[in-house]
Amino acid sequence: MEQLNVLQKIAIFLLLLDNKKVSEILNHFDQKEIVILTEEMLKIDSKLLNNFEKILKEFLQISQIYHVYNFKNFNQVSSLLKHSLGDKKSEKILTFYQLKNIFMNKIFYLNTFDSMKIFLAIQHEPISIISIILIYLNKKLSLKIFFLFHEKKRIKIFENIQQFSGIEKFGLSMLNKILDDIFKKFNVISTLDSGKKYALKFIDSFKKKK
After folding, report:
1. Based on CB atoms within 10 Å of each CB, which residue in 56, 153, 184, 210 is the most buried?
2. Predicted confidence band at 77 (pLDDT cuts at 50, 70, 90)?
3. b vs e for 148-166, b when ≥16 Cβ sit within 10 Å of the residue's Cβ?
4. Among candidates 47, 45, 41, 31, which has minimal Cα distance to 10?
């Protein structure tokens, strides 16, 4: 993609939206900013407009970083994308972000578990899967889990993390299934833990009777 500045990206983004949506967006700018954006939009030629799909993806990635997804607006966003890109391209983009949203919700839930419990559930997963989970978990929890692995495995995990370049749509589908399996493992681990606690209590009470 041609190197574009922020103003050019915003101008291209606005040019390919419908007038009603553009007027809603411009309401958030002051008069000076609107003048600058208008000038920038008048400079955009047809070659630069070809960058719209990549710019749209960039805007969606930024919104994900700042946690501004609002899937209550899904129909509105879907309609907007279909109008701008057509059915096939808009469906691809929206499916990816739906899967990403499901994945991030599961990671958010995973952050509520104890580091040892997560380690026991993921320790036999492929290195690539372990690495991705550690990348997306909060840093403190991720480091605790990382140091529970033996040294050789830690080196491999670290190498994978360094080489990480993002998740594709197919990868997200697979990761969501793996996380579902991990949550099932938590139930087994919890059952084993409660069984151990019950056994210890039983032994302790038996000793007292003796």
Report:
1. 56
2. low
3. ebeeeeeeebeebbeeeee
4. 41
